[in-house]
Amino acid sequence: MNIHEYQAKAIFSRFRVPVLGSHLVRSGDNIEQFCESLDAQDWVAKAQVHAGGRGKAGGVVRAKSKKALASAINAMLDARLVTKQTDAAGLPVHAVLVEESVQIRRELYLALLVDRECGQVAIVASAEGGVDIEQVARQTPDRIITQWVHPGAGLQPSQVRTLAYALALGKDQVRQLQDILFALFELFVSCDCSLVEINPLIVNGEGRLIALDAKINVDDNALYRQQDIAGLHDATQGNRDEEEARELGLNYIKLGGSVGCIVNGAGLAMATMDLVKHHGGEPANFLDVGGATTQDRVAEAFKLVVRDTHVKAVLVNIFGGIVRCDLTAQGILDALQAISLQVPVIVLLQGTRAAEGRQLLENRHAHLRLANTLTEAAQLAIRHASA
Ligand code: ADP
Ligand code: MG
Fold this sequence. Notes:
Blueprint: H1 5-14, E1 22-26, H2 31-37, E2 43-47, E3 60-63, H3 66-76, E4 80-81, E5 91-92, E6 95-100, E7 104-115, E8 120-126, H4 133-139, E9 144-149, H5 157-166, H6 171-190, E10 193-204, E11 209-211, E12 215-218, H7 227-230, H8 240-248, E13 251-254, E14 259-263, H9 266-278, E15 285-288, H10 295-307, E16 313-320, H11 325-338, E17 345-351, H12 354-361, E18 368-370, H13 374-385
Parallel strand pairs: 14-16, 16-17, 17-18
Antiparallel strand pairs: 1-6, 2-3, 2-6, 4-5, 7-8, 7-10, 8-9, 10-11, 10-12, 13-15
The structure holds adenosine-5'-diphosphate and magnesium ion (MG).
C-alpha cells in the first residue's frame, strides 16, 4: 500500500528522521486566508499524489510571494497531475503540502527495500540524488551502492560508514546519517514496509541532512497489524477498477494487454499469464478470484475484466479443488445475463465437477468456447485477441 508524502513525513517525524516544517491544504480550504497567515515569503507547493516525478511535471512549484503561492495551490487543487509515473489521465490532487523553500547544497538518494533474492533489507544510496535517479541507475549504475542488513545482526556502524564514504559526507554529516539510517531501519521493520525512499535527502545550507521527499510502501499482507497505516488508504489514487475489485475481495491488477484473464489462485494466475506471454500474447490483467470463490465472485470478476476496452478475448482458467467448476460456470452464465458480451471467452475447467461445468456452458453463447488444455486455451485466446 502506498501513502502520500505528507503522511510518510509524519511517520518520519515520529521516528526522528528530519523533515521540514510544513502545512497541508485541502480542497475546500480558504487558500488566500491560509497564505496570509504564513510569515515567511519563500515556499514550495507540492501536489499530493501517489506518484513521483512531480518536480518535472509542475507538481512541485516554488513561490516567492503569498500571491504566487496562492495561485500555485489553486492551480493544483482539484486538477489532475500527469507525471511519468502516472498514466495519461494522471491522478487527482486533493491536497497540497506547503513547505518552506530551503537552500540545497547537495541532493542524495537513499532507499530501504526488501531484497527478495537474499531475504534481507537492502539500503541503497547514491550521491547523485534528485529527479534523475532513474537515469543514474540506467547509465552509471556504479554510482549506486547497496548494503544488506542481516536480520539477526541488524544495521552495523561499519555499514553506515561505508554508505557515508560513498556519499562523500563530511564528519558531522556521518553522525547525522547514522541517526537517520538507524531511525529508518527501525521504521522500516516496525511499520512492515516494502519500500522507504528519500529522494532527495538533501544537505542544506547549514550542512544538515533533511528528507525533502518521502515515500513509504507498506506490505499489503501486514496491513492487518498496521491499522493506523491501513486507515491512510486513499481510494482516489488507485485505478478505479482495481479499487472496485479490492472492495469485492478480488485480487485484480490491470496490465494493458488484450487477453483478459480470470483464474482461481495467484500461482495459477501467474502461470496462465506466463503461458499467454510464451505464446506471443499480452495479458490484460492479473485476476485471482480466490481459492474458495463463489458464483457471485466469478460473475463480478467477469464483468470487471470485460469492462476493459483493451480486452479482445478472455481466458478463464479454473482448477477446481475446493472450488466447484459447475458453480464457476454458473457465475459465467450469470455475468453473461447482465452484460452484452462482445468478445470471445475461452474457458478451461478442470478438477471438481469439471464435466458438469462444461455441460452447463456447452452451446449457451455464441462467444463461449471450451478448451481441453491450458496450451489450447491460451493459443485460442491469443488468436482471437489478435484477430
Ligand atoms: P518528485 O520526486 O515527485 O519530483 P520531490 O519532492 O522530490 O518531488 O521534489 C522535486 C525537487 O524539487 C527536489 O529534487 C528539489 O530539488 C525540489 N524541492 C522539493 N521540495 C523543496 C523545498 N522544500 N525547497 C526547495 N526545493 C525543493
Ligand atoms: Mg522525489
